[in-house]
Amino acid sequence: MRCELCLKSGMSGNNVSHSNRHTKTRFKANVHKQTLVQDGNQYKVKICSRCLRSLHKSPKFRKALASLKPVAH
Questions:
Q1: pTM (2 decimals)?
Q2: Which of 5, 15, 18, 68 has its CA at 20 to 30 Å from residue 46's CA atom?
Q3: Residues in a beta bridge with 26
Q4: Running DSSP on this structure, what letter comes out for residue 71?
Q5: What is the DSSP string of the chain?
């Protein structure tokens, strides 16, 4: 999954054992489906935990949330 606000997604890398063997692995972003409320509107978004924390602090993220389409209740 991908964060709808910052577009963070997974990345690939290697697991490295003690004997230094490399196996491919995926590191997934910590993304959750959340229902957020702003100005009486509900928004269903897939958002990473970093953006969820930053929503309360930064006006930049509140503007990005306002650009999304609200959910009809």
A1: 0.69
A2: 15
A3: 12
A4: B
A5: ---TTT----EEEEEE-TT--EEEEEE---EEEEEEEETTEEEEEEEEHHHHHHTTT-HHHHHHHHTSPPBP-
